[in-house]
Write a structure and sequence with these properties.
Layout lengths: L18 E5 L5 E6 H10 L3 E6 L6 E5 L1 H18 L5 E6 L5 H16 L3 E7 L8 H14 L4 E10 L2 E8 L11 H23 L2 H8 L1 H20 L2 H14 L1
Length: 253
């Protein structure tokens, strides 16, 4: 029979107390029972007696399925390990007179480390007379900070320790980015706005004459004159009326 691990709770016959404070399978408080009585009650339900609080007086035991209990505890431990982020510190060494190509390579390594969630310790090594110009190191570190902007931020400011100037960069937590409107999403809305716009244009175009007539009374008064001219056109061709008007002089003659 396999023995329980050190961190696992005692159960059934492995419980050493003579009396226990018993909790039922449904979570109810049963009370203080002797160990044989508690074991009998657990067996009647085809379950186990598990010691959940061994330091209490008397120890607290609960009736439950021990196999299911172990599985649930292992799942909780696994989820807890997933949420734990293992942060390590990566060190990158530089020289004050480093070339541009080498600096780009070093910065690229820093960006990779920061994107993976690691901290980066930047160590700037001075030699000989370079110690007389620490400002060169400060400028170089400022260049590094600018190139990792967005991925990392300064956690420990640059400081001179002997012949080395060190600085620690930490990964920068990005804020959630809001989803922008894509052209495909904009098309239906634009189409709806286009239809509404067309209806609005037609609606505004229709009352234009009325509005102009109300605003300019002179123009609205000229409109009936034009209509009368069209109606009087056939009246001007009334030649017989003019001939009849000429008959009276003939009769008087």
């Amino acid at each position: 029979m396999a023995t329980p691990q050190q961190n696992e709770p005692r159960y059934n016959e492995r419980i050493r107390a003579r009396e226990v404070r018993l909790i039922g399978a449904d979570g109810s408080q049963v009370g203080i029972k002797t160990l044989p009585e508690a074991l009998t009650m657990a067996r009647q339900l085809d379950l186990d007696l598990v010691e959940v609080a061994p330091l209490a007086n008397p120890p607290v035991c609960r009736i439950m399925d021990y196999g299911k209990f172990r599985y649930e505890e292992s799942q909780k431990a696994k989820e807890s390990r997933k949420k734990t982020i293992h942060v390590s510190i990566k060190e990158v060494k530089l020289r004050p007179k480093i070339g541009k190509g080498d600096l780009d390579t070093k910065v690229r390594h820093m960006q990779e480390f920061l994107s993976e969630g690691h901290k980066v310790k930047v160590t700037l090594q001075f030699r000989g007379r370079e110690m007389a110009h620490p400002e060169l190191g400060s400028r170089l570190l400022d260049t590094v900070i600018a190139q990792v902007d967005g991925l990392g931020k300064v956690e420990t400011q640059a400081r001179l320790e002997g012949r080395n100037m060190t600085m620690v960069l930490a990964p920068e937590k990005k804020a959630p980015v809001k989803k922008e409107r894509t052209p495909s999403d904009a098309k239906p809305n634009d189409a709806e706005h286009g239809d509404d716009g067309a209806g609005t244009d037609e609606a505004t175009a229709a009352p234009t004459p009325t509005d102009s007539a109300s605003e300019t009374p002179g123009e609205s008064a000229e409109a009936p004159v034009a209509a009368v001219a069209e109606i009087e056109a056939p009246a001007e061709v009334e030649a017989p009326t003019e001939l009849v008007a000429m008959d009276p002089p003939g009769e008087s003659a």
